[in-house]
Specification:
The protein is α+β, with helices and mostly antiparallel strands. It has a domain at 36-142 and 163-189. The chain contains four helices and ten strands; from the N terminus they run E-E-E-H-E-H-H-E-E-H-E-E-E-E. The chain has helices at 37-45, 57-66, 69-72, 119-138; strands at 2-3, 6-10, 31-33, 49-51, 82-94, 97-110, 147-149, 173-175, 183-184, 192-194. Strands 4, 5, 6, 8 and 9 form a five-stranded mixed beta sheet that branches. A three-stranded antiparallel beta sheet has the order 1-2-3, with no helix packed on it. The longest helix has 20 residues, at 119-138. It is globular, with a radius of gyration of 18 Å. It starts with a strand and ends in an 8-residue tail after the last strand. The relative contact order is 0.20.
Length: 202
């Protein structure tokens, strides 16, 4: 979401996974600055960002502080030893030529000791995300009952600038060069709304 010169990202769903207490985790609909944390790096670079293998959790936490994660949300768990941020890319045509935007970011982290997603394990996630984008694009013509994807004003995305270049973090985070993020060649936004009102039919 763009408000003047400020870009915000909105969490689209509650956190999912083992050992997550919904009462203890801020969830869907919260907003935070688009340039903060691992998600901010993926958003601005338009590339997949992944922590390096066997990075020390303490070092990863220091990195999140330098990326101002704590300004947007509570501190990351000191046990987290793996993070991944996958941008979802929209490629469309503008008046001045091709436009590439990030329309969403998939975020994954893990406290499991030694956990790491190799490229081979990451590929199925990217393929599922790409199929999701394609199906969401098709659903615009026949939206599911009572669920609609509301198109917001098409302001030019600023794609937030990150002050700390990722080159300064190459002992903790890495831009994945071997895999491209999921993309769709169509104008798209992910802004779904559900209504409890039943449509009146003659």
């Amino acid at each position: 979401m763009v408000f003047g010169a400020e870009e915000l990202l909105q969490q689209a769903c509650d956190y999912q996974g083992l050992g997550i207490d919904p009462e203890d985790q801020p969830g869907a609909s919260r907003t935070f600055p688009a340039g903060n944390g691992t998600i901010g790096l993926a958003y601005s670079h338009k590339k997949i960002v992944r922590s390096i293998r066997l990075v020390e959790p303490a070092k990863l936490n220091d990195t999140m502080r330098s990326l101002k994660l704590n300004e947007a949300s509570r501190a990351m768990s000191p046990k987290v030893g793996f993070v991944l941020a996958v941008p979802l890319i929209e490629r469309s045509k503008g008046l001045d030529g091709p436009i590439t935007r990030v329309i969403g970011v998939i975020y994954v982290d893990s406290e499991a000791v030694g956990f790491f997603l190799e490229d081979g394990a990451l590929k199925p996630l990217l393929e599922m995300a790409e199929r999701l984008l394609a199906s969401l694009n098709l659903s615009r013509d026949s939206p599911p009952d009572r669920i609609s994807n509301i198109q917001m004003d098409r302001q030019p995305a600023l794609q937030a600038h990150i002050e700390a270049p990722i080159a300064d973090m190459d002992d903790r985070l890495d831009i994945v060069q071997t895999l491209e993020p999921p993309a769709i060649d169509a104008e798209m936004q992910i802004n779904f709304d559900f209504t409890d009102f039943l449509p009146v039919r003659p």
